[in-house]
Design goal:
- The protein is α/β, with parallel strands linked by helices and 339 residues long.
- The chain folds into two domains: 138 residues, 3-Layer(aba) Sandwich (Rossmann fold); 180 residues, Dihydrodipicolinate Reductase, domain 2.
- Helices cover 36% and strands 23% of the residues.
- An eight-stranded mixed sheet has the order 8-9-10-7-11-12-13-14. It has a six-stranded parallel sheet with strand order 3-2-1-4-5-6, with helices on both faces.
- It is globular and about 65 Å long.
- 47% of the residues are buried.
Length: 339
């Protein structure tokens, strides 16, 4: 079988640690090109993966005509570069958040439809074993009616992860648009939509910059969310959790409480109202900490969808719905401050 010719646009940490590694491990993929505005960086990756190096994504798309691209750029470039690639006939895997506005997201979706190409957004939480098992248990009724939830995603901040450290685009509002909520909160909005199989109809939140000096980007947020059926809960996103990363979710149901990624040994703990406790060992969640799972499963899913002409689990419409939750939280926080 002919291999998919793939290009990665943006060679920061997410490309280095996820996209390039996982494409390289997929037997159906050939990495043909990499692109980054930092010449030394892109040349290093080109040498490592025996690919062609570019500092202009337009030149890459014109010269290479890849089958698919990963867009691993600062948030403000996601829409423009994804649309350009789709218009060139490429399938696109875009990092989250998919865009900086509803309008941009809609333009990306329209470009994918118009060109009959796949558009997938890089939300990896749906592929985590404990999350998939929890969804199965909820769907088959083990937890009964769901009443509430608590979810958190926090770590020490992108300076410990990003290729450029404290000088990263993550801390520049004109490039990032949104901070911890776009980096981490949008993952949890997507996860909750997946687990509960519902949309959020009411959103409120406080979004603050109180931990990182010298930036006006948000680094701490707490949100209250309500679904169409009345399930309520909280979502917290933070770049100010010192020590170990927190990536936990708790679902409170009529018959059971499900604790996801909240124990060092058991990735899912189900406590039933009759006192029975079931501990699941399902493998570690993907993490920026040492010891996190080595594959996100995002790349393999994207490749499979192209090869078998199936719709990605997190397509453009799904990415947009998760983005809209975060945008609504920002609007709520802004209204609170004005009021």
């Amino acid at each position: 079988m002919t291999k998919l010719r793939v290009a990665v646009i943006g060679c920061g940490s997410i490309a280095k640690n996820r996209h390039l590694v996982e494409y390289n491990s997929n037997p159906h993929v050939e990495i043909v090109a990499v692109c980054d505005i930092v010449e030394t960086r892109v040349q290093d990756f080109a040498n490592l993966y025996q690919a062609n190096a570019y500092t202009s994504y337009e030149e890459l798309l014109e010269a290479e005509k890849p089958d698919a691209v990963s867009v691993c750029l600062p948030n403000y470039l996601h829409a423009a570069v994804s649309i350009a690639a789709l218009n060139r006939g490429c399938h696109v895997l875009c990092e989250k958040p998919m865009a900086t506005s509803r309008e941009e997201a809609e333009q990306m979706i329209e470009a994918a439809h118009r060109n009959n190409k796949k558009l997938m957004i890089g939300h990896n939480q749906r592929f985590v074993a404990s999350h998939k098992k929890a969804k199965q248990l909820i769907e088959q009724g083990d937890a009964g009616k769901i009443y509430s939830f608590r979810t958190t995603f926090g770590h020490g901040g992108p300076e410990g992860w990003s290729a450029d450290g404290r000088n990263s685009w993550f801390f520049k509002k004109d490039q990032a648009f949104i901070g911890a909520m776009g980096d981490l909160g949008v993952h949890k909005a997507d996860l909750l939509r997946y687990l509960l199989n519902e949309e959020f109809t009411d959103v409120a939140g406080f979004v603050e910059t109180n931990a990182k000096e010298g930036t006006d980007i948000d680094d701490n947020a707490v949100c209250i969310l309500k679904t169409e059926s009345g399930v309520i809960g909280t979502l917290a996103a933070s770049w100010a959790y010192t020590g170990k990363e927190d990536n936990s979710t708790i679902i409170y149901g009529e018959n059971a409480t499900l604790r996801l990624e909240d124990h060092p040994d058991f990735s899912l703990i189900v406590t039933y109202k009759n006192g029975e406790v079931v501990n699941y060992e399902l493998g570690a969640i993907q993490s920026n900490d040492e010891g996190g799972q080595t594959t996100s499963h995002v790349i393999d899913h994207f490749v499979d969808c192209i090869l078998h002409d199936t719709e990605p689990l997190i397509n453009g419409e799904e990415g947009k719905k998760s983005l809209e939750v975060i945008l609504a939280v920002l609007e709520s926080s802004k209204a609170e401050k004005v009021g």
